[in-house]
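1st attempt posting a full record on here, be nice pls
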Amino acid sequence: MSEFLLPVQYLRQIAEQLRTMRADPDDWLSHCGVEPRQLDNPGYQPNLAQFRQLIEHAVQLTDEPALGLLLGERLIINTHGVLGFAAQQSESLRQAIQLVERYLAVRTTLVTIRQKHDDAAGVEHIQFVPSYSLGPIQRTVLEAVMLAIKNIFDAITPSHVRLNQVSFPFPAPCYVGLANDMFNCQVTYQQSWAGFTFDSALLDLPLRMADPAAFREAELICQRELLKLSENITLSDRIRRLMLEKQNGFPSLVVTARLVHMTPRTLHRHLLDEGTSFKEILREVRHSLAVEHIKSGRLTIQEIAYSLGYNDVANFRRAFKQWEGVPPSEYCSELL
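the predicted structure (as tokens):
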């Protein structure tokens, strides 16, 4: 199995949403090289390239820019299998967040979740970090995943509990009002990260459906599923994810080796066995992030260069021209 994971149940949800919007799911699948009957196969797993194509075509087919929100609204707690069941048994929001942070990968590897505490403001930030370069589908994916996670929190917390704010790293779309309504709070755009903000006081609020015994049993199942998945992830995939998670300060070869419990020489040898190298993975990650930063329009060329670890903007410009065939300034012009 490849590192990318998205159970076929989520593709069925997309198909149902398309059907609701009077689009033909079979045409959607066939256009992207997927046999409609494959959605009936519990073991079917699209690769990342197929998933990107499926999401792009779904947006085109429906002509609905807010498709991510509509998909996220469908993803209630019961659609997430044992992870959703375990969350329902949590004793507190803190425990539920730790559960999702630790075991989200048993449902999808599209994003990872980090919790950050802001003591001065008395709030918690739940950040969603894409595990891959998602390009044009980033907005749709983040909206769907974040609304799905909010649905889990809504299902287990009292009705008066709500988020303070939702943040997205892309420009405000034409449907800001719809986003505010669906997240039931203020949604802000052009932020440096994607995620939720809520009062820290809510973390240890007792939850009404808590069942410690059922929670422990469900968590053990999550642990076993995660162990199965981790056994199939390549070292290069792990390194790539580390870099994406730390994209504002890439770890060196020595630090990366320490993080994966290897010596630099052993790490280098294993990567060679997989047909790549530390430098090649770093180049790929820099390339994908550079393109996404330029498309987002939030940072200047100089800021992008420094964020990707280039001390000299000229070196970044040369590298970008090698990747895309044109300098970054010309690439920006072509996007307009």
